[in-house]
Amino acid sequence: MQKEGKMDDFNGYSERKIKIAARIAEFEKNGFWDRDVADDPDPKPLDPNKVDYLNEKLSSKIYTQIANFMAENYFEKEIKKGNLRIKAINGIENFDKVKDQGVILTCNHFSIYDHYAVYKSVKKRLPKKHRLYKVIKEGNYTSFEGLFGFFFRHCNTLPLSENKYAMIKFLRAVDELLKSGEKILIYPEQALWFGYKKPRPLKAGAFRLAVRSGVPVLPVFITMEDSEKPDPEGGFVQDYTVWFSEPLFPKEGLSAKENEAYLSEENYKVWQKIYEKFYGVALSYES
């Protein structure tokens, strides 16, 4: 059992961390579950002609190969430095149950490292030549510069968009990837809340895609606890435990909408159970 901690324990935190923690407390109180707490750049609209969802172009294949190599090198260095710490992986046998078919993996979103913790957990179990695809928001794909902007655009990412034609391409790509047995990671909470340990209400998108393609959902939840290593912003680097739960399948006899609701509710219940067991507290919110 681990202590979940309080959002108002700000002593010694950096100004940025205090600002984010205060914003999270405000958003939780008001139920703004899907709003980002960071000051990200204003999103530029996605041009559907400039995204190659299935890496069909030679240039896309080359950039993806380079970006994946660089990203893996970057995050492995972060592990060696002790900035990304995976203490334990539980229930990985549940991934093995569905690894030979298309799957939607869901995960709570609290760090720039959480996707790599999931990838690191399943990497050696992925079928040959398969990757872990990630659904990302439009602004991450279009508006970030530098190294992370390069990762966002080329590391097997599937950007969402407000553009109707881009979303048609997105849906076709998701259908094709799942049909070919690929694994797609989605954050159904939608927004990134740094260091937030509770599961948040889930958006329907991930479950709609699973029902549309007739594939299972594999809930993944990452819990955190303080390590002995201080972080630069006044807290401690977190030790992650990655929990893989039983896969959830759409139910026969339910309509598409009913199955979306069923999968979403079951996913949330699974996350809640893990949260309460690990932290030893009943899940509750300030809202």
Structural write-up:
With 287 residues, the chain is an alpha/beta fold. Helix content is 41%, strand content 16%. A 7-stranded mixed beta sheet has the order 1-7-6-2-5-3-4, sandwiched between helices. A hairpin with a 5-residue loop joins strand 6 and strand 7 (236-244). Helix 8 (205-213) crosses helix 9 (256-279). The chain is globular. The two termini are 25 Å apart. 34% of the residues are buried.
Write the SSE topology.
Layout: H1 15-30, H2 58-81, E1 85-90, H3 92-96, E2 103-107, H4 114-122, E3 132-136, H5 138-143, H6 146-154, E4 157-159, H7 164-179, E5 183-186, H8 205-213, E6 217-230, E7 236-244, H9 256-279
Parallel strand pairs: 1-7, 2-5, 2-6, 3-4, 3-5
Antiparallel strand pairs: 6-7
Which strand-content bin applies to the residues?
A: 15-25%
Backbone structural class:
alpha/beta
* Total beta strand runs: 7
What percent of the residues sit in helical stretches (DSSP H or I)? 40-55%
Major sheet strand order: 1-7-6-2-5-3-4
Main beta sheet, described?
A: 7 strands, mixed
Return Rg in Å: 19 Å
Average pLDDT across residues? 93
Give the overall shape.
globular
Number of helices: 9
